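Hey, resending since the last one bounced:
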Amino acid sequence: MKAQDILVVLKLLSKLIANQSWNQRELASELGISVGEINASLKRNHKSGFLDAELVPVKYAIKEFLLHGFKYCFPAELGQPTRGIKTAYAAPFIADQFASQELPPVWPDPDGEERGIEFKPLYKSVPFAIKNDDQLYRFLVLLDILRSGRKREINIAQKLLKSEIG
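The structure tokens again:
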């Protein structure tokens, strides 16, 4: 598995939740990944059991991996202060549940409106990919909490992720 495989399968979950159809060219365009990489990712996701034969996400398998193995495969990496898009505990939809006086974690993005500490995104195109997909943004923020948060934050993220995936 590669980081982009998780991004692809989360995008497919997002589309499934929204009851949207998709094709490989659309996925490539929406995620900022080449069509060839999308194709290879779909094959790896199918082989791993995250997609069935019709390339429909297998929620149980995805949820199990995200909750129990994801943070070990893709640990959090922090960097220097930068501009970007808030993630982890600082994301707008969850920030009210956590108090913090620190600079917020952000995915670096030249168009980002927030100043914070660089939080390396799961894949380089994440800041682009989430701009038109709130559900994908939610998934990725919750995963960032799982890989960087404290126990209370992780518990909240796990509960929300279970609910979001279904």
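The chain has a mean pLDDT of 95.

Sorry for the duplicate.
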